[in-house]
Structure formats: C-alpha cells, structure tokens
Amino acid sequence: MKAIASHNGLAAAQRAYELASTGSSPLDACVAGVALIEDDPEELTVGYGGLPNEDGVVELDAAVMDGRLHRGAGVAALQKVRHPAQVAQRLMEQTTRALLVGEGALRFAQANGFPEENLLTDKARRMWLYWKRTRSNFDDWRRPAADETDLDVEHWFATRFYGQAAREGRHGTVHCAVQGPTGDLACTTSTSGHAFKLAGRVGDSPILGAGLYVDNEAGTCGSIGHGEANLTHLSSFAAVELMRTGLSPVDAGLELLRRIAAKTPEHERDENGRPKFNLQLFLLHHSGAHAGVAMWGPKQIAVCDEQGGRLEDCTPLYER
Ligand code: GLY
C-alpha cells in the first residue's frame, strides 16, 4: 500500500493512506486527501484561495481516474465550487460522460448539492490586482505607490513570477495517487490552473492522459506544472505506457521530460535552449515502486507508506 502526491500534497498523501488502510477505496481516499489541499486558503494554485484568471475569477480544473474500473472524468473552468475533484468523481460515478466544462460543470455540481461560494480570498484578490497594476505601462492602471505596496505580494512576484525561477508561481496544482491493499490504483489532479490565465483556459489537469492516467496493470502518473507541455505530449498516458514496456518509474518519467524538452517551442526556451517552464511527473508502478521527476530541480514528491509520510527528492532533468 502506498500514497504519493506532489510536494504540496503531503497532508493529502497521509490522509489518503490512512483512509485506504481503513477500508476506503483508493479513489475515495485520494479525493478525500486532495480536499484538504483544495480547502487550504494559503495554497495559491488549488481550490479555495487559488489565484484567479485575468478577469479576477477563480476557475478550477480537476479529474479523477479509477484503475479498477479503468474509468475517469474531469471538470474544467468550474467556478464557485471548491472541490472540483469531488465533482469529477460524481461525474464518473453518476453519468456516462467524461468531461464537463464551465456552466455545464457548475450546473452538474449544483444538481449534486455542492455548496457555492466566492473562491477568491482577499490575498488572491490583492495578488491579482498587483498583477493588473504592474504588467504594462500601456493601460489605464498606475503602478502601486510606495505607501500602497504590499511587501508580501511584491516579494512573491519578484521571486516566483518575474524572477529567476521564471514563472514558477504561475502554475502549481496538486496530484495524489493511491495503491490500495488489493493492489488497485487510483489518482486525482486538482488545480486553479495558471495564475491570471485567459478566462476559459483549460489546462492538462482535467484531461485524462495529460494531467493524470492510471492503468491497473501498469501504474499511475500525474503531473503539475506547465499544462500545455503535457497536453501536447499526453505525458501521463505516455509515461504509464513506458512503465508497461518495462521502464522503471524514474526512467519513464525522465524519458517524457526529455521528449518535452526536445520539442519545446522556441519562445519557451532559455538562452541555453532548455525549457523555461517547470513540469513534474509523479509515478507509481503497479509493483509499488514510485518516483518523482522534475524538468527543473530541486523539487520534491510526497510519499506515505508503512514508514510514514515524508518528502523525497525528485530526479531532475536540469538543475538551476
Ligand atoms: N498543470 C496545471 C495547469 O497547467 O493548469
């Protein structure tokens, strides 16, 4: 038995492991684990408190996949509901469909009694406003004066958005995968997507094969980072297929990162020709072996098994 998660999902992995150990299905366990992160207002890339789109509206993407049934579903650009992974699970369980977006996803959530609320926290609103006021000298907005400056917000933009770690702060996401006591696999990925994205932009997280994939006979893979790179490589599907052919989780993950790096468009490369963006894959082989890989290290993967919960280093393709 094991649960793995992205670095920001240690609590999710621990909760999922505990639930799967006490009789919950792997899917119920990972969705319940991820709900802890969706609830956290300090997590700026997931659920309640996630950074909004360019209009200041929080739009969430998530998907689930169950290896035992080989079924999955996703919801995209969902507003007002803080647990999109739960909505995706209901969609998988109650319907014959695999993807709902926007207004349709909200109506489905309403029909299922999910509470609606404003997901934009004061902190996320202040960050969005700072972005609007500083991104251009050719619009109506004036840059914040010294006495208006919010040091926390300014520091975040300097170090995570505009800084050397080029635009790491634009994307986050949480992924969690579980192998239950009978060997069945399941996983979920949940995100608020790229910060300040175009309204209606959908990333990789709600797309089966891109942001997550499970095959009970091979393994699971899920991803966080620059979603468009995953969408053009169907990275999670491809990595699981590589594990099926005999590659270890770390070799399968690194092979995908190499493929993505080789085909990165020119405008997304640094002066040395390497991708400017980050992308991490979290892999769990059906044998129970796991790995986290990152386009740019250092990064970590959360793991929970009989030795308890911990963060381990991902294997990077490149080091900063
Ligand atoms: N991987 C999250 C996103 O690109 O939306």
Automatic annotation (TrEMBL):
Cross-referenced Pfam families, in alphabetical order? Asparaginase_2 (PF01112)
Protein source organism? Lignipirellula cremea
Identify the PANTHER family for this entry: L-ASPARAGINASE, N(4)-(BETA-N-ACETYLGLUCOSAMINYL)-L-ASPARAGINASE
Enzyme class label? hydrolase
Q: InterPro entries, per this entry?
A: Ntn_hydrolases_N (IPR029055), Peptidase_T2 (IPR000246)
- Site Cleavage — annotated at G172, T173
| Identification of the protein by name | N(4)-(Beta-N-acetylglucosaminyl)-L-asparaginase
**GO CC annotation: what is one?**
cytoplasm
